[in-house]
Every structure is written in C-alpha cells, then in structure tokens.
Amino acid sequence: GEFDGAWCHNELRYALDRGYDILSIDWQLCTKETVNPLRGYVRDLYDRKVTAQRSGDPSFFIYKLLLNSIYGKFGQKSGDSFTKMVRIDLIEDFIEKVGVDIVEWQGESYVVSPVCGKRQPPYVIVMWAAYITAEARVKEYELMQRFGSDVAYCDTDCAIGPTVLGVSDGLGELGLERGPVTFEIRAPKYYRWSANGHDWRYKKAGIRSQFQRDFWETGAVSYYRPTKIGESMKANMRMSHWIRQLK
Q: Looking at the keywords, is Ubl conjugation present (predicted)?
C-alpha cells in the first residue's frame, strides 16, 4: 500500500534499507552540520538518576524530571498556549480585557493572560523533538521485529508483552516498569492491567483518570472541567470557566 506524511531522515533511511520506495517528496529541511549539544548533560544526569534510584534517594525524581523536560520544551507549542502574569494594579484597562484570569500569589493579585508571540521562543526546537521521537520509533520497531509475537502492545516509549524483553538501566535501554500483570488491550492508549490479583487500573487517552474505569465499563462519561486558554479566547469567555464535557 501507499501512505504519506512528514518523516525525519533517519526514518526514511531506515525504510529505504528495508525495501520501501519513496514516490515523491514535496519539501525537506536538511543541513551539512551535525550538532549534539546535550550529550554530556544527558549522560551526567542519567548516571546521577540511576545512582539515586539504586540507593532510594528521592533526588531520582528531580533528575528524571530534568531529563524529561528537555524533550518537552523542544516540542512545546507556541501561540496562545503561552501566558504571562502582570500585577493587577499595573493594568489600567483589565476590566475590559477578554480571556484573562485573576490569581492570588504571595499576597498580590495578578492578571494571567495569553501571550500571542510573533515568533517561537528560543527553546522551541521542533526538529530536535521530532528526531528524538523518530529515534525512539526506529529502536522500538527493531524490538518489535526481534521479539515478534512477544510484543503485545507498544507506545512510543513502552512495549508490553508476555516475556521480559531484556531489560537494563543503561542509557537508551529498556527498563522494567511493571510486571508481571494481567493486561487487556482494546485500542492504542486504551487498556487496563491488574498486578497480583489487585484492583484493575485503567488507561484511556483523553479521559481523566478518575473517569477511566467508567469509560471502560460504559463507553461514555460526562464530567465538568475548566476551559483552556485557547478555547476560552475562541469562545470569548473567561479562562477556567466550567463546562460539561461529554466523552
């Protein structure tokens, strides 16, 4: 069959090596220079994270957060997803503004409003985030080919199956997150598991955690949630306005 999309060069090279054909290219971005500015940073933090995890040091969570934040910041959306806080007494016309919210912080009142930037912030480097994801997909595809039917389910950052797929705490290797468990899958990012006969735990992308069991059992849920910044601006309403959500 044929399919189209946007792909990183490492994915395309991997596909070509395995017999795929590229029929046409609409556009591409490329460079003759190779950069790897985070190698030392990542290796140092990862070694610290492993050491802290082995000793039970709670700083493990800090190192994990720092490592995870690198990827998230590179791929962070711009536009109306950014906000700024301004002290309320410094805004003369805040009563007339639409799409703002007021918060209390350290005894002062602040207006939180969207920032519509004309360009992306310096830390948004979408290509780096794309390549990180692409490398993970290639590695995971290799695992799927290697272990075959032993892989029952996978996301970009995990693989689930009836056998342990060779785990290690080395950088870039698979780690054993949970097991053994009873696992049931209905669709991508839609499953449940139970460990040692304990209560079921549920996962459904797009459904709040406290309603995921109800969605599994009935196929539909209803709950109230506050509006996000972008949808508040489009609907010309205050941020954090509570609406009924049907799923």
A: no
With 0.85 as the threshold, say if the pTM is over it.
Answer: no
Question: What does the domain layout of the chain look like in residue ranges?
Answer: 77-123, 178-247
What DSSP letter does each residue of the chain carry, written as one string?
--------HHHHHHHHHTT------S-----S----TTHHHHHHHHHHHHHHHHHT-THHHHHHHHHHHHHHHHT---STT-EEEEEGGG-TTGGG-SS-EEEEETTEEEEEEE---SS--TT--HHHHHHHHHHHHHHHHHHHHHHGGG--EEETTEEE-SS-----SSTTS----S-S-EEEEEETTEEEEESTT---EEEETTS-GGGHHHHHHHS--EEEEEPPHHHHHHTT--TT-EEEEE-
pLDDT in tens, 43-83: 999 999 999 999 999 999 999 999 888 888 888 776 555 66
Amino acid identity for residue 38 in this structure: L
Strands 153-155 and 108-114: unpaired
Closest CA to 157 of 146, 172, 145, 168: 172
